[in-house]
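pasting for ref
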Amino acid sequence: MDVEAAGMVATYPRLCRLMEAERRVRQHRELASTKDIMIEHQLERLEFCVGNLLIKVIKRTFKGPASTHRLSQPAKWQRSK
C-alpha cells in the first residue's frame, strides 16, 4: 500500500471499507456469472445426451419386421371408416 492509499484509509476508513465491499461483490458476480455459464453448458450437454438416448430407445422399440408392419398398417379407428 502506498503512502497516499494509507492516508486515505486513515482519513476515510468507512469509504475504504465500502469500496472494498463493492470490489468483493463485483468479484462474486463475475464468479456467479461464470458458474451460470458452466451450468447452462452442462444442461445443454445433458439435453443432447438424453435426446440421443431417447432416439436409441425408440429405434430399439420399433425394430424388426413385425413393428415395421404394425407401423405401416392404419390404426383400427382408421380402418373402420
